[in-house]
Design brief:
Layout lengths: L3 E3 H8 L3 H9 L15 E3 H15 L4 H7 L3 H37 L15 H18 L4 H5 L3 H6 L2 H12 L5 E10 L2 E8 L3 E9 L2 E10 L5
Antiparallel strand pairs: 1-2, 3-4, 4-5, 5-6
């Protein structure tokens, strides 16, 4: 004889609510049993396992419509999960592109420029190559702790915001904890933005340079997991 559990017991076990269970039952995703008109509904082991899978797939971001079509097939679920992951990576790439554009616009506004002159789809050009070369030089200067180099290539506002003593503090607080420098992992060039991904012994660090009129007008640091690159 199979064991039946009450909805409240199952909800406590799986961390969900009776309202959710009833909703899934209405959609036909699970089935409850009732011995009599005045007895509480319960779930058998098969439906408890189905509910567990549904809750797990929902946490992965899959829709109930998709879940309804794959819940009985683990291979179909794996395929849909791969598709979902690919979609999320595409969304992340799009969001990162938007962030870079927003940072470029912020840098332009801080220097009194025209934000509508920023072109997010500007083709690669000599200007990109020039910015890339400057980013390489500034990256090496940063690793060498030659902070005076930043002053020579920065806008007036950046000179005020990032004098040598502030860059020294950034080095001590942000870069030094990453450990010894290992290598340049990769580089991204988009419009007036160049992002260098640096691998250190303990942690990855991305350095984003924004240039305006040939001068450094924005600088951002972000940690990243090195296995992503």
């Amino acid at each position: 004889m199979q064991q039946l559990k009450s909805i409240s017991e199952v909800c406590g076990q799986l961390g969900t609510t009776s309202r959710t269970v009833r909703y899934y039952e209405q959609l036909g995703l699970i089935t409850t049993v009732q011995d009599g008109r005045n007895t509480p509904r319960r779930l058998d082991e098969k439906n408890i396992e189905r509910l567990r899978k549904i809750l797990f797939l929902r946490r992965l971001g899959l829709s109930l419509k998709d879940i309804g079509g794959i819940i009985a097939s683990d291979s179909s679920a794996a395929e849909l999960i791969r598709d979902k992951r690919a979609g999320i990576y595409a969304e992340i790439a799009e969001l990162r592109s938007r962030i870079r554009l927003l940072e470029e616009v912020m840098a332009v506004t801080e220097n009194g420029g025209d934000i509508y002159a920023v072109n997010p789809q500007m083709p690669y050009s000599d200007k990109h190559a020039e910015n890339e070369a400057k980013a390489d030089k500034l990256t090496q200067s940063l690793l060498d702790r030659n902070f005076d180099c930043f002053t020579a290539h920065s806008s007036q506002r950046m000179k005020e915001l990032l004098p040598a003593n502030i860059l020294e503090k950034i080095w001590n607080d942000t870069i030094s904890p990453c450990g010894g420098f290992v290598k340049l992992s990769k580089k991204q060039v988009e419009a007036n933005t160049v992002t260098q991904f640096l691998q250190f012994e303990k942690l990855g660090l991305s350095v984003r340079f924004v240039f305006h009129d040939g001068l450094l007008s924005g600088l951002w640091f972000d940690y990243y997991y090195q296995e992503e690159n």
